[in-house]
Amino acid sequence: MLMAGRSSGIAALLLLFLSAAIQSEPAAAVKPMPQSMSESLILKDSIVKMINANPAAGWKAVMNPHFSNYTVQQFKYILGVKQTPHNALINIPVKTYPKSLKLPKDFDARTSWSHCTSIGRILDQGHCGSCWAFGAVEALSDRFCIHFGINASLSANDLLACCGFMCGDGCDGGYPIFAWRYFVQNGVVTEECDPYFDQIGCAHPGCEPSYPTPTCEKQCKVKNKVWAQTKHFAVNAYKINSDPQNIMAEVYQNGPVEVAFTVYEDFAHYKSGVYKHITGDEMGGHAVKLIGWGTSEHGEDYWLLANQWNRGWGDDGYFKILRGANECGIEEAVVAGLPSAKNLIRNFADMDGGADATA
Question: Which ranges carry the Peptidase C1A papain C-terminal domain (predicted)?
Answer without folding.
Answer: 103-338
